[in-house]
Model the fold of this input.
Amino acid sequence: MVGQSMVKLIEAGLLILLAACGAGVSPEGERLASDNGPLKAVASNAPKRALSVQAVAQAITPDMLMDWAEGAFADLFPGHSQTTSSQGFVYRYYPSASSFIAVKSDGGVYVLFLNTSDQVKYVAPIADFTCLVTPTAFACRPPIYTVIFTHIEDTTPTGTLGTSQARSNYLLWRDRLIQMANLTRRYNMTWVLQPDWKFLEAARLYEDGATMASTGGVNLLRYLRDSLGVIIDPHSHEGSGYNYPDVAYLLEQLGVGGSTVIGGHVWDPSLPQFAHWERFRVPVAGEKYPSALWRGELLMGSGTPGHTNDPIVSGMWRPKDPYNYFVDDPLGNISAVGAYKSDVGGITTLRGLYEAGRFDATCMLTNTIHVFPSTISSAGGLATVERDVVLPLQSLRASGQVEITNFTALAATWKSRFGGKACVYQE
Done:
């Protein structure tokens, strides 16, 4: 039992708390709740998700919040105090620190430090602490950031450029790509197209007035981007005298330049096909078009020849160097995104990592899905894409388990929502 004087002190503190909720400015001593204080900071930066059915079911209680605060800020809320309720407040008092933490009936969280002040400080709604107190709760797990993309290889269109065969094949591909873009647009999903040099040179040759009549007088690439929402990045096998800066230059000439995504590369320095990605730390000149300078900033598709032994990796990081590719260099100026398994099923596996506590809400996990050109061009291929990719993703997105994005936006989200924290999951 506490002494009578301590009871009076607690009562005085509670009266102040009840009378002054939200009033006044926090003094310097109230570092916990000040605008730059740790409790205010963690509440402001905590992951916030739209409240779903699961989130409502898992809403935290005042006791859960105060238990967490005792562990996270033991110097300010030392020991484990008894919870008391009075006049619309649930609160705990910590005698050795002369401090209170309270939750009002409207969900507001307040603190009071009698050693430094009789002013009460409002911190935040209790809901803002949900993902700090229960980081593995369903509603607190970040979505798996997923990119749907297609590579158009340097063998497309078939035939020699300038021949009727190449033109005919280009026009077939033109129609198919528009159909694919319409499919993803119908479901409000982002699709990323990454063409190599031959397709772009074909577009420069064959996008004439008659061809562009069906796309509002603009070339295919501009139509895909501006009318159908397709994101366009460079892709290059760096063969036939063309490298990444050349492909970036061709995209510029077609009016869809600006991407700094390195759309696929061989990452293993022990292989003869190693892409020497580190050269893009500075601008690189084109081979076909030497006046073209381009610097890549984001690596995707860290693969192997023929994709026979690709690393199964998720997350984002800044590769240190070719021989320490999966080691993060906080000062690095090139980032990498893990492709993981390139299927919808991998999303469930990655979600399980959050549930199991292998990763917390401060880590971004990633997945990419390559819709192969052979699928797009085959009879019934788009129906397969809709059934096996688009519809399952639509369901996962509706439940908050996935966010469909593009590589550039993903990198921006990594910096803004996750603070650029490197997290790498590798199987």
Notes: DSSP finds 14 helices and 19 strands in the chain. The two ends are 56 Å apart (CA to CA).
